[in-house]
Amino acid sequence: MILVTGGAGFIGANFVLDWLALSEESLVNLDKLTYAGNRENLAALTDDPRHVFVHGDIGDSALTNRLLAQYQPRAIINFAAESHVDRSIHGPEDFIQTNIVGTFHLLESIRGYWSSLQGEARDGFRFLHVSTDEVYGSLAREEPAFSETHRYEPNSPYSASKAASDHLVRAYHHTYGLPVLTTNCSNNYGPYHFPEKLIPLMIVNALAGKPLPVYGDGQQIRDWLYVKDHCSAIRRVLEAGRPGETYNVGGWNEKPNLDIVRTVCTLLDELRPRADGKPYCEQIAYVTDRPGHDRRYAIDARKIERELGWKPAETFATGIRKTVQWYLDNQAWVGNVQSGAYRDWVEKNYGERQG
Ligand code: NAD
Ligand code: TYD
What we know:
This protein is α/β, with parallel strands linked by helices. It has helices at about 10-20, 60-70, 85-90, 95-115, 120-125, 155-175, 200-205, 225-240, 255-270, 300-310, 315-330, 330-335, 340-350; strands at about 1-5, 25-30, 50-55, 75-80, 125-130, 180-185, 190, 210-215, 220-225, 225, 245-250, 255, 285. Helix 4 (about 95-115) packs parallel to helix 6 (about 155-175) and helix 7 (about 200-205) runs parallel beside helix 9.
């Protein structure tokens, strides 16, 4: 079986659902259930004995040692992290704790476990660390996209903490020989995306008749990838990636934020027109920019295509339509995640921003 951390979050839950739909191999899912972790994402697996959910922290060595000894996974995929840049600006400590210290403790447990393995079990073992393109910093408009050799230049507490975890993972390979794989992916979107991030926030706010808060001039560029394509890339890297290597994952789909927001509005105009017949774009509101806001991310995904034959299956047009439709079909999920804690966050992040 395999062990997944953070499998109740956005990407992790999509990964777990796809994994069990595509393979018979069981999966242990270790998740702390922070505000971003939601067991409802995994409701379809309630009666599936192949899914073992464990509520816990990647930094709890006693727990991870016990899980490794008990389940003897052939591979571990580390999704667990604090993942939202704006939250890292308001409160970096949790990011340091989970993304750096937590990953360190997890690596230590895994090193102990892997050292105890022998023969094929030891040779075939893999630790796959899921990371982000944000570790590379910000690109100017004319610069080439991030390749795997681009220097690390993280600019937010979030990206700095992910960069630190990537370095630890790299060091455990270099120093101890641990068979690690790292993926650095661009911005994901799709089902189960927590509505603090750009795309789900815009869908949810639009439907609620609220302002659509665009930071600064809205011309910051991100490279968007449908989440299920990220999951297929991770499966492919796990299957065929070379230990010690990193693979950049992206959708060749750079777009300014304002284009993204307008696309969401246009789709909603078609699929769920406003009662007053006016376009959702009228709700766009320019607000104070994010401090230290990275201007552009773009992924050069040629290595994973050349070496492992991976390519995204969705275009942005098909992926964003599916995503908007998913939110329209899952209004109860949206209602459930908008707890008091969610409302407190919205007040904290947007209350102080001027329009
Ligand atoms: P998310 O915030 O939606 O989910 C994170 C999950 O990790 C949650 O279920 C949470 O409960 C769990 N978690 C947090 N701290 C934990 C801890 N100490 N121990 C165990 N579980 C813990 O994040 P996501 O968007 O699904 O991102 C998953 C991974 O992918 C992260 O490592 C992130 O850096 C990376 N990534 C995300 C994106 C993106 O666009 N969302 C892009 C590239 C890479
Ligand atoms: P986000 O989804 O937070 O991802 P990241 O910061 O990790 O790229 O934000 C995507 C882009 O959208 C980023 O440039 C910030 C911008 N943004 C807004 O303009 N308004 C918002 O309310 C949010 C959450 C993000």
